[in-house]
Every structure is written in C-alpha cells, then in structure tokens.
Amino acid sequence: MKCNAKIEKISNFYGRPIYYINKPIPLIGHIAFGIIDRGTNVLQVRPSTLCFHNCIFCSVDAGPNSKFRESEYIVNEEWLAEWVNDVANVKNEDIEVLIDGVGEPISHPKILKLISLIKKIKNVKTISIETHGGSLSLQLAKKLEEAGLNRINLSIDSINSENAKKLSGTEWYDVNKILKNASEILKETNIDIVLTPVVIPEINEKDMDLIIEWAKENHAGEKSNYPSGILIQKFEIHHFGRKPEKIKVWSWGKFYSWLKILQEKHNYRLIVKPEELGFKDSAKLEKPFHVNDIVKSTIIGNGWLKNEYLATDENCIRIISIISKEDLMIGSKVKTKIIRDKDNIFLGKLY
C-alpha cells in the first residue's frame, strides 16, 4: 500500500498551527498523539496536544507559553478508535484505555464521542482520563459517565489557592471549585477519582498533607478497588520540560523515604505497586523498524517540536519524527535513519 498521507491545518493556538490528524496517517509512532503501547494491559491514548495551563513544572512544555513547540495536533476520534480496536485485538485480553497526553485530553472537541467509541471495543474494560480539572464540572462528568468513562486521574498539586495558581501558571485556575466539583462527582456518579499530584521540593511538598486528607475523606480510589486514592509523583527534569528556579530534584531514595513518613503520619497507603493498580505485562506490538534501519519516508507536515518534521514510511505503517534543521518540502521523499524505536515511538534523522 502506498501512503498518501497529509495533515490539515484547522486553526491556531497562541501562534502555533493546529493540525488535524486523520486517515490514513498512522497513529502509532509519535509520543504526542495517537497510541502508545508500553507492553502492559494499559494503553495510552492521546487525542489532543492542546492545553490552557502553563504549569511551571510541565515535563512536556505544554500551554500558551510553550518555548519549544512548533505545532499542536487534534486526532479524528473515529480514526483513533479504529486504531485502539486494532491494538486491543493484539492484546487479546481485558485492557484499560488511559486517555492522557502532552496536553489536556478534555480539550478534544469530541472527547465524549471518542470515549463512547472506545467503550464499544469488546476487551476494553476500563476507560480513564487524566486532567488538571480546569474545565471539569458535574454536568460534564455525567456526560463522560454516560459515554463510558470509569475513572478520572485528577492532577491536583496544591489545595492552597495561591500556590495552585502559581503551579498552574494561570490566574484563572480555581482549585477550590475543582475539588468541590470532584467531591460532587464522587457522590453523584459512578466515576472514580484518583489524585495524581507532582511533588516539587520546597514548593508544594507541605501541601501534600491536605491533599492526602482530601483523598481519605472523599473515599478517592475506592470505586476502582485501589489501595489508595492518591498517587504522588516525583518531579523530574525533562529535556524539553520546565524547571522552577532553584529547585533541587530529589533522588528516588529520598522520595520514597519522604513517602514512608507521610504514609505513617496519615495512616494511609501512599506507596503502591503497579500490580495493585491492575497493571500487568501484556502482548506488545511488534516494531516494524529498529535503530539504525534506513526507512524510505515521506514528509507530511511540520513536527511537534522545533527542528522536527512529521513523516510516514512509504506503506503508512508508522509515523516518524525526523530531526532536521534543513527546510524540507511537504511531500518530499527522504531516507530516514532510525535513531529511537522504544515502545514503537520512532525518531529519525536524514540519511
């Protein structure tokens, strides 16, 4: 099959073009959109890169103030569901679909339809979504529940109003309203909520006490039979991410020691094994290309980050990010040397 893929510009987002990803563009191969299979029974599904927050610790430089992004993407929901179905068939067992992303997944204009399409896939047993909650409401949650959503992973990084605004990089972020909505969602729907804060040394580590107590008092995670309603994440520095000034990153040893102290203080589980959350190894998609392979590719559009282009192989099997400072014409044929292939995410350079 010859590939005649192209991306369509549909709008702009704070000076960056938004491109629409649709058939026949492959939806495996890129970290920013489509599907990521890491060899477990949990599939990451990424429908949108848009985000209206400017989190000061964002690992993927999302939001209006992004320094490194060149483009944003929205994926056609029907095409994405088709790919989820194909990957689910490879798994051939019950799976969870985690709708996450390098942005805010709820920003997808047809997120409800996407969830309803995924829900129809026979071996999808759980659908969860990640959000910072800025656009979350009880009314929306009821629609999400009707579509088939089971759990919300809610990224609340502080219950202190001013600190929450600082962390989100916005003045409009209202953590009290978000938590009020979250409490109502837990009471009035069958959707579960699990809090997923990122602890940043000296900025919000003291805020974790109140977040833990909120999870306890509101029975977060119980509908999912999780041993905890809060999964605290360690802040890490990423190459294209943001780092608050004068922050010293904890070692993993220090992080777990700190978690143990909090766990004892609150008499509440904070250290949880992946298998307790339902994670297990599963059949993994085969990689059509490997590091050092030379792949005949077609440039189909601008890349996600600066000095990148989107390309497909000649048979539309995978999407490939090509790093190049050269001006490459859309539609041009190039030879690409694969320099990264982990988890079927492909990065290449001109050969």
TrEMBL record:
Top-level taxon of the source organism: Archaea
Pfam families, per database record: Radical_SAM
Keyword Metal-binding found: yes
Keywords: Iron, Iron-sulfur, Metal-binding, S-adenosyl-L-methionine
GO molecular function annotation: catalytic activity; iron-sulfur cluster binding; metal ion binding
Coiled coil: none
PROSITE patterns associated with the record: RADICAL_SAM
Record-linked Gene3D superfamilies: Aldolase class I
PANTHER family xrefs: MOLYBDENUM COFACTOR BIOSYNTHESIS PROTEIN A-RELATED, RADICAL SAM DOMAIN PROTEIN
Protein name per its UniProtKB record: Putative Fe-S oxidoreductase
